[in-house]
Every structure is written in C-alpha cells, then in structure tokens.
Predict the 3D structure of the following.
Amino acid sequence: MFHTLHPVLLISTFVVNKILPRTAQSSFYIVVATAMELATEQLFPNSINKQVGGSNRTLQEVLQIVLLGFSITCLILSGLFKSESDTDNKKPNNQIKNKNLILKYETREYKNNVKQYQIPVYCGKADQVAPLSNATSPLHLHVEQTLKLPTQDIYKPHFAKLMDDADKLSFTKNLFHVPENITYMCGNSLGLQPKSLQAMLQNHLDKWAHVGVKGHFTGDYPWFEIEDFLVDKMARVVGAKPIEIGIMNTLTSNLHSLLTAFYNPTDTRYKILIEESPFPSDMHAITSHVLSRRINKSPEQVVIQVGAKPGSDIITTQDILDTITQFKDELSVVMLGAVHFMTGQFLDLEAITKHAHQYDIMVGFDCAHAAGNINLKLHDWNVDFACWCTYKYLNSGPGNIAGLFVHERHADASMKELPRHGGWWGHARKTRFTLTNKFIPQRGAAGFQCSNPSVTDCLSLLSSLEIFDRAGIDALREKSVLLTDYLVLLLKAQKELVGEIEILTPSDVQRRGCQVSVRVLKRDMDQVNKDLDSRGVVCDEREPDVIRIAPTPLYNTFQDVYRVVCEITKVFSK
Ligand SMILES: Cc1ncc(COP(=O)(O)O)c(C=O)c1O
Ligand SMILES: Nc1ccccc1C(=O)C[C@H](N)C(=O)O
C-alpha cells in the first residue's frame, strides 16, 4: 500500500503524527479535507455541480469521496507513526519527562540501606538521549519525584532551601547545641551536645545529693539497672537484638574483651586479618593480644593486612574475600573497621561475614565510624562481634561509655568457649550481691560487663539515643544519603576545585556513610583546614593530606552543605 502513496502525503502524515496527540489528529484531517473542498468550490465555482466524465456524480461528490479516502488513509498511517505526545500519556513509570529533559530510571536494590532506589540511567533532550554521567544518585531521584524539579536546579542556590523545607527531620537540629556562627561538619570526630542532657544530668546530681546510696534502687533511673534504659535503644540503632548489646567501658577496652573471647589461636589457626591502614588503636589492641597470649609468634607472623590496590584508596570487597580464601586455614579472626576512619569507605559487612563463616573464621568489626551513621544490621548480617564508641555520631560526649555487640548465637557460650574478662557487673544479676566467687556470666553481651557503669555517662548517651528513637535510624540514613550526595555533587561541580582536591570516599552510596574525605592535592592541608576554620567551617584533618567533611543528618542541613562548599571554593580560589 505504501508505494502507491504520494511522498508528500507520507511526510505530512509523519510530521503531524509526531507533533499532535492522536485525539487531535482526526480533527486535523477533517479540517484539511473540508478546507480542500471549500477551496475547490472557490476556485471552480462553475464546474462544482457539473457531472464528471461519463459518471452520474457531480465534481463535488467525487471530491468528497476522494477527500474522505484521504482522511481515512491518513488515520491508518497515524497508527504506523507513534506520536511523542501519545507516549507522554502512557508514560512508563520508569521514565520522567519535562519540557527539556527525559530521564529513564532503573530500579536498584541497596541491600545495606534496605530501601530500593531508582537510579537515572540516561538523561537528555527527548530526541537526543545521552548517557547520564553524574546523575547516578538517589538525590536526583528525590528531586524528580519528591520535589518535582528538573535535576539541573540542583546547582542553584535556592535548591538547598527547598530541600530543607521538604525535610521531615528538620526538627532534630533544634534538639542540639549547635555552636554559634559555625557550620559544624565534624560528627565523625565528636558529636554535638543534646539540649536535654543538662536537665537530665542536673536531676541526677540532685538525686545523688538528696538520697545518696539509695539512688541505686530509686528514682526515674535506678543506677543499679541504668544500662537497661539504653540497651533497646542502642539495639535499634545498630540493627541488633537487646540480648546482643552491651553498654560498657570504651571502644578499645571492649575490643580487648572481644579479642579475649573470639581470638582463639591454635597451632595452625592463629592469624588475624585487618585492613592495611587501620585506626592505630585497633592495631595496638591486636598486637598486644599476640604478645599477651604468649603464642610464640611475632605480630608480623600473625597479622595479615588487606589494602587498596596501588593508585587507589578503596579496598575492594573481592580483595578482602580473596585474602580470606588465601588464608582460610590459618585465620582465626577477621577484624576490620566497618567505616574506614580516613577514607569513609563502608565495607560490605554481610558479604565478608558470610564468606569467612564458610571457613569457620570469626568476624568482628570496629564500628566507631558506622554506629549512628549507617543503618547497620549487625544481627541479620550474622556478624560475630562488634564494638564502637558513642562520642561520634551517637553524641554522648568526649570519652563516653561505649557499645559492644555479640551475636545471639553466642549468647549461651560457656566461659571455656568464649572466655570473658570476669567482673561482678557481668555476673548473673540475681546473685550479683550474694558475693559468690564463682563467675556465672549473664546471657549475651551483658555477660561481657566488668564494672558498674558511670551513670553520668549512661545519661549522656540516653539523651542522644532518645533523639535517635524520635527520628528513626532508617529515616536518618535516608536523609544522610541525600545530604552527602549533595555535598559530593556540589564539590564536583566547582571548576575552582578541579586539580585542587580529590575525593577519596567511594561514590557508591552503598559503600559510604555521611563522611566525605577529600585529598588536598597541591596546597598545605593544615593551612586549608585553618582557612576553613577562620571562615566558620569546622571539619577535621588527618595526616598527611586528608580533610574529612561529615554532614550529619541529625543537625546538618542542605543549606549547611551549600555554605560549606561555597567556603571551600573560596579557600581554593585564593
Ligand atoms: C576507628 C576507631 N577505632 C578506635 C578508636 C579509639 O577509640 P577509643 O579511644 O574510644 O578507645 C577510634 C577513635 O578514637 C576510631 O576512630
Ligand atoms: N577521641 C578523640 C580525642 C581527640 C582527638 C580525636 C579523637 C577521635 O576520636 C579521633 C577519631 N577516632 C578519628 O577518627 O580520628
């Protein structure tokens, strides 16, 4: 049928079908047909009613038949050329369009964040779709779907305010003392003070002043069971069951207790795997165990380290798994930093644990930079043990009491299976005061306690955990992903920063928390940090050349992030 049609008819039909929605096309052809009939009447007024040739039809009737045929042909053809506007009406839900932009989404599951995000896989003008280079982030999705803005607005100054206005968690900032005239981005080192703490501590001091020793068993928070007020809340923050949580000591001393229990060197299995540049305290703890156990091996023979490939700062999961496989018969324990203090890389705890368990290797993590930062699932990921401090993202104050996790499956282990540093607070509560000399540990992580905890420490932690309960760790993580995504996006967009800085932290949101580590390439890092400080931006630095910036969802805003990037840009523009 095609080859009999006039090319003009084909082209005009194609154009009309591309431009008009189907509903408008039929009206268009009827108008064209009527216009042609009217034009014939005007041009040939004398011939219009005459009979054509030998037939008994007038010219007008013949014209009407021809034009009707023309309209029907055009309508048939319209089915062959799909209109852009028609696809708009039946828009598949993985595609978003506005006047200038077409974005196509692909659903990706972020198992560690639980949530499913749709990631834009290409972006461009409707007729020249191009791969999207830097729009692979949940922030873009949030913008398109929640704020209904074109993604290019992300770089405009009013955007940060729009994000803050849309933030369901904006109420939490006011629950903290935020230093005046400062943009504080240092929750990775020390969290801010909850406003509720002062009254809590004052009540505690008043109670102590008024009732003395009776305070152990009286008042709102009887000191004898003070940790009970924290355990459930802490369990929710790190994805654990209450039986798996201990509130005690400090991070490094908890790591020592856990190594005593879980590091069980034998003649053949005595090695410990740790990352190449761990926080020094972790390495000190491990090497001191090698010496104190008198296992007749040097730390060099015991400690295996896995690092990033040359030229990279990031350790690949595959390299960790391969190292475990390589030393599978000699490894006793894998002990890694869940979020690396320097690079901000978040390891795949679940994959590492699963892999090591195949070879009966115990797996533990230092969660100093992960607790309160990432919505951990320590129970579900089957981690054997973990420890963390509470003064960073958990805002309990400098040097405060720490957390410890021991998986439920070890809850009833005997002292022989999991030796614990005995102490009366870890002893079964009912007989704690019978002063028996036989140590019977409490079930679960509580059995790792030694001494009665500092009540001021516990209340300090409680004031922050109450805020976590109000906000919810999943919602906080969701905001954190957007905040940090925004920071990275803005940093990458500043032409003044090109060649001046390099971002170390993984770009994949699954593999990082809120912290972004930036390497200062040409300038003196210490001077850069001082300049930021003088401009009211508080970050921190790690030798030799890294600045750490941690937008913290509890008290940082999108406007804070915008301001920090402006100040960083000014420092590097000098
Ligand atoms: C990863 C890591 N591990 C261990 C520590 C030491 O913690 P603490 O002094 O509370 O024992 C820190 C920070 O101080 C840390 O960042
Ligand atoms: N507790 C401190 C006391 C003084 C100075 C720093 C700290 C830190 O916590 C540093 C942090 N652990 C880090 O990731 O570098």
